[in-house]
């Protein structure tokens, strides 16, 4: 019954946010440090979304952004999990690989744009690289945390039963670290979308991030909100998909605490 009461509460919170948005934009609320003078109303945004839905460019924007995000994300997932397993299990790998990665981790995606343009022969590869950097570090750090969090007694027990390195990795480390890895994969998917606008600033053609940025440059304010909300919805849906696939891949892990 607890789950039954969640949905009305969720819808009520969304309705309250929309109501505040409508009132603040309609009355041009000005709080000094925060102003809604130029913020479009939800109805204006809905009209802009309806126009985009019926335009011929929506499919091109979606396919371009999805291709860039998933290309960068899948590359980051593969590299991040492999590096995380190595760093979490090997003191040598931790000493040699983690310091340069920690130096690179705080660098924001926008700071990578000039170097990405110089390094890659096409703008498409540059944009994939930006989404890659956004997803890599959440996946990497959560994998390291998951590996280091595996109970040493389980590893010692497996070793005493004659398990080798590969068997311990496959039967103990990966199952024990899997929940943390799934969390990192879900966060990494969200940060890939977060970096999309930055990545598509390089592009001059298609993409949801490019659509949002172009709307800002021509001062088409409702379309800015449409692009932002579309990125948010796509990011939420793809992160939810990763979590769902992760829960199916880890049937032995269930959180017993009520939520």
Automatic annotation (TrEMBL):
The keyword Transmembrane applies. The keyword Repeat does not apply. Residues 62-242 form the ABC transmembrane type-1 domain. GO terms for biological process: alkanesulfonate transmembrane transport. It is a multi-pass membrane protein. GO terms for cellular component: plasma membrane. The chain crosses the membrane at residues 36-53, 65-88, 103-120, 127-147, 224-242. Keywords: Cell membrane, Membrane, Transmembrane, Transmembrane helix, Transport. It is found in: Cell membrane. InterPro entries: MetI-like, MetI-like_sf. PANTHER family: ABC TRANSPORTER PERMEASE PROTEIN MJ0413-RELATED, ALKANE SULFONATE ABC TRANSPORTER-RELATED, MEMBRANE SUBUNIT. Belongs to the binding-protein-dependent transport system permease family. This is Organosulfonate ABC transporter permease protein. The lineage of its organism: Bacteria, Pseudomonadati, Pseudomonadota, Gammaproteobacteria, Pseudomonadales.
